[in-house]
Structures are given as C-alpha cells and as structure tokens.
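ZP: hey, is the inosine-5'-diphosphate complex queued? I don't see it on the tracker
AM: it wasn't, my bad. submitting now with these inputs:
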Amino acid sequence: MAAKTERTFIAIKPDGVQRGLVGEIIKRFEQRGFRLVAAKFMQPTEALCKEHYIDLKDMPFYAGLVKYMSNGPVLAMVWEGLSVVKIGRLMLGETNPIDSKPGTIRGDLCIEVGRNLIHGSDSVASATKEVALWFKPEELVSYTSCAQPWLYE
Ligand code: IDP
Ligand code: MG
C-alpha cells in the first residue's frame, strides 16, 4: 500500500502555462490514473527557483534557467500513485526534447532544452525535498479516490 502513495513534484513551467498546455499536461497524469494531491498556480520567486535548481548551480545555464523558471506563472503540483516518480519521468520524456520520444510530454509538445515545459522529480528522495520546498504540509489535500480499486488490484 505504501508504494501506492508515492508522491512526485510536477511543475508546469512558464512556457507550458503561456502556451496553453496546462490542461493537456494535467489530462495525461489524470488519464494515467494518478491522483492529484496538491496544486498551486503561482509566480515563483527567483529565490525559490534558485533553491529548486541548487544542484545545477555550477552549470553554465543556471542563471538562464532560474530566469526562465521565475519569469512567469508556474503550476506546481503533487501527484500520487504507484511508482509515480519513475512513471512521471517516463511521461515527461528526456531532459532534451530532441531526445524525447513521441508520446511523451516533451516529445510531443516542445523543441528546445531551455524551454522544455515541465519539471518532474527524478527520485523519491528529491520528490520529498521538492514537495517540502514548494508546499506547506497543510496544502496537501487528503481524500479517498473512488478510482482506487479500479486502478490497483
Ligand atoms: P530534468 O528537468 O529533466 O530533470 P535537469 O538535468 O535536472 O533535467 O535540468 C533541469 C532543467 O535545466 C531542465 O529541465 C532544463 O529546463 C534546464 N537545462 C538542462 N540542461 C540545459 C542546457 O543544456 N541548456 C539550457 N537549459 C538546460
Ligand atoms: Mg532534474
């Protein structure tokens, strides 16, 4: 049961919002069977974006990345389900859309690595860290999904 409540942090980046892809992206997570636990439409501060990408601080694209991420509204979300971290990453596609297969979000909807639409946690540990960075505990909504017995045996 515990694995079915695995959580991941997914954020639709400013290009995804500006290009009107919020519905398309949410649809894919809903249709796969994942459960929305939290969602917050927000303008992230530069400080939050810096912290979120702190592991990349020595990369040449770090400053541009922080500017891109903090340059418009972001839809921050928490999704839950069995292996949601791994499946979420598969749904996103590769970091560089050029390497992303058709059928993935990046492989279907964007072209360049610096405008790759969406963030998804890359491990259970980073998911825990990122959920805590973007959300207060009380912003995570607790409810029972009626689809549960039709998704899991
Ligand atoms: P991920 O988003 O697939 O986990 P990371 O390697 O963690 O990829 O990089 C974080 C973000 O930094 C990417 O999603 C992308 O927006 C940006 N990024 C990564 N590599 C480059 C690059 O070479 N040029 C510009 N931006 C990059
Ligand atoms: Mg990453």
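AM: back. Residues 122 surround magnesium ion (ligand 2) (CB under 6 Å).
ZP: great, adding it to the tracker
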